[in-house]
Design goal:
With 229 residues, this protein is an all-alpha fold. It has helices spanning 2-31, 42-52, 60-85, 90-112, 121-143, 155-169, 175-205, 211-222. Helices cover 75% and strands 0% of the residues. Helix 4 (90-112) packs antiparallel against helix 5. It is globular and about 55 Å long.
């Protein structure tokens, strides 16, 4: 029974985090002139494109966001080690850190409106805070939720899902493959729904559109328990 409950909780956490990943990444992309806050390596593509064919769009916010993302991962690692030395369960505190940064992203974005350029100080701050929030989520996935599928970049998940579906279709799949297929499916679907929702949320609510992601993080904090590796 406990194992079944753990699997349900893991599936729920992965789906919610996948939704948040897609939602925040897309909302930030729409709001901040094509900035990826979760899939930060995608910013390198945009930087390369802008350098090769200048269109007048600044790449400063993308460089700053990458630095904030890396710094957040490093800080999260040290924060988790500090919490573990004190004997404190780290997951709830790490989700709380992400919640704080995501709330800062929303507030900085609201203060930056109207956004005429990505180079204004408040726009740069908003981008950095958004990237830092998603850096925390990425670090938590590696350090505390390693049993879950990745929740911010779906390329590897889609690859594994397609491989498993092919094996199922040809009749060469055992029970473990069926379970893995379900494990990868729900975060992918949640990420897709989140990406669509984030785009429309910004169109209709601006940076207030981050409130659903903030509420979901608060819900995760309430029931936060680490997953067994």
């Amino acid at each position: 029974m406990a194992e079944g409950n753990n699997e349900v909780q893991a599936s729920r956490q992965a789906a919610v985090l996948g939704f948040i990943g897609g939602y925040v990444d897309t909302l930030g992309f729409v709001a901040l002139f094509g900035l990826f806050t979760a899939h930060v390596t995608g910013n390198f593509v945009l930087i390369g494109s802008e350098l090769a064919r200048p269109s007048g769009n600044s790449v400063l916010i993308k460089f700053l966001a990458f630095g904030a993302f890396v710094a957040a991962i490093a800080f999260t690692r040290l924060y988790i080690l500090w919490l573990e030395r004190r004997g404190a369960p780290p997951l709830r505190s790490v989700f709380g850190l992400q919640l704080l940064l995501l709330t800062g992203f929303m507030l900085a974005g609201l203060a930056a409106v109207p956004l005429a350029s990505s180079d204004t100080p408040l726009a740069l701050l908003a981008g950095a805070l958004g990237a830092a929030a998603m850096g925390v989520q990425n670090a938590a996935a590696k350090l505390l939720l390693s049993s879950l599928t990745p929740t911010t970049v779906m390329t590897g998940n889609v690859t594994q899902l397609v491989i498993d579906l092919v094996d199922i279709a040809r009749g060469g799949a055992d029970a473990a493959i069926h379970r893995r297929c379900a494990k990868f499916l729900w975060p992918i679907l949640a990420f897709g729904v989140g990406a669509i929702g984030g785009a429309f949320a910004y169109i209709f609510a601006g940076f207030y559109g981050l409130l659903p992601a903030i509420a979901l993080l608060a819900w995760l904090i309430h029931g936060a328990r680490p997953q067994p590796a």
